Here is the input.
Amino acid sequence: MTFESVLMMLGGIGMFLYGMKLMGNSLESAAGAKMEKILEKLTSNKAKGVALGAGVTAVIQSSAATIIMVVGFLNAGILKLAQGVPVIMGANIGTTITAQILRMGDISGDNIFLMLLKPSTFAPILIVVSAFILLMSKRQSLKDKTGIFMGLGILFMGMTLMQNSFAPMAESEEFSKLFTLFANPFLGVAVGMAVTVLLQSSSAAVGVLQATASTGVVTFAMAAPIAIGCNLGKCVTVLLASIGVNRDAKRAVSIDVTMCVLGSAIFLIAIYLYQGVIGFDFWDDKVNMGAVANFHTLFNVVVAVIFLPFINPLIKLASKIVKDEGGYTKMDQELAMLDTRFFDTPNVALEQCRKVINIMCDTGKESFNIACDLVDKYEEDKRETINENEAFLDKTETVLGEYIVHITEHPLSARQNIFATELLHTVGDMERIGDHVDNLAEEAEIMHNDGEKYSDESMAEFNCLRNTINEILTTTSKAYETEEQELVLKVEALEEVVDDMVDMMKINHAVRLKDGTCTVERGVSFIEMLTDIERISDHCNNVCQHLLQRMNGLELSTHDRELKTEEEQRAFKELYDEYFARFWVV
Here is the structure.
């Protein structure tokens, strides 16, 4: 093998890996967070889990990436172990799609249609057309879709280079003799594992095997153990992903490794036992790219079929391997959603941030209602709950802010950058809601220590305002989860209702101060509480305005949106009248 051939082979491998990565990233960006949402909605249906795992892996072109994603979801408590295992099985099947695509290199013939189907023909066309679109287009969505075809073209160009670098070896007796050594099952498995670990991709390792098979010197006896070794090598990447995760995530990784090791052992024993007793007619036949792809797919499908009925025994075995652990708090569980393993799939990482923000909103609502209870009747244990919630919100703001910054250090699309910026704004608003709630609790504590209470009239008005804030917090959380524009408009209307209610309550309170119903000290305290409550509604509106701007693809601003259309103004007025009448009942 000449120095030029070596360089051509290395260049081909590099292009192959980059093309596969580009295609997977572009598919993931084009699909958005849909794949992750599908994974999260898995039921106990095992077959459905296998199918979804295979589908997601076929999209992102990496079984290791899918398994790492599942490990992250298990670590965050989003998936249960019984749901994650079928997805892992499906991921191992989905990774074979790359080899099936590459088998197109076997196409031959002088027909113009067949020539166009050959990778060496259509790959340059894909690259040229895709490059033109990427350079000329300004729409990110179109660039994401085009990146899929650019990646596919580069992948096939890399495969063509590898094939060309191996072509001179077809006539080399030394190369043929060297490859006969790999007919030894132990050596073949070791080589397959080594190549996979080196390239960090079983798909790429099988691709190299397919390129070598195109020389015509590889037999089934040589290819089978190498292909099995490629599947085993993937376990190393997955094992690295299990470092620092919780119990169920470690058990999922141990199950994947167990299936790969036992599946490989079963396959090797079955193949060589049959060959020794009866014998395969095609054992010494030369294999092409299609045959390698078929064996790779067959291996993963059979392993999944063998172990699918034994998910529960596998979980029990994993429970013995990975013992139960304690000391895992609720806060740890929620912040575990921000797993660094998601950085390689930014859409997943950003989606996890959105979920944590929803938890912050729910926590703020819980604290707000407890604080309102303290105003009416002070209880020390409830005050402690608010302190715990405030500590959670403060810690979450710090952790989430750092996590989002780390996400932005990775290559992001324009849409993802806007999303990240919006998340940073929203985190600040959610933490400020917690601060204002803490102020309410502090005022309630001061009143309790001074032995004072608000008048019945003041508390009646206060409870009306409380109901409105509960509605606006609930609507904000739902709007952020569903991204429905109607809910954003509802939050705007509720925020205006809160402003007018607070203004009227201040006027009414001034009257009570004049006639002596309330003392000056309680009057000042009441006004401060109204100010904090009004700020809570302002921050909810900020969250929804940032969400709306991101949904419309606009640059984020701290200014409120102006209602521009008559239809919007009319809908806003109807909502305002409805909510003001509903909540302002004293």
Q: What stands out?
A: Residues 255 and 314 are 6 Å apart (CA to CA). The chain has a mean pLDDT of 80. DSSP finds 24 helices and no strands in the chain. The first helix runs from residue 3 to 31.
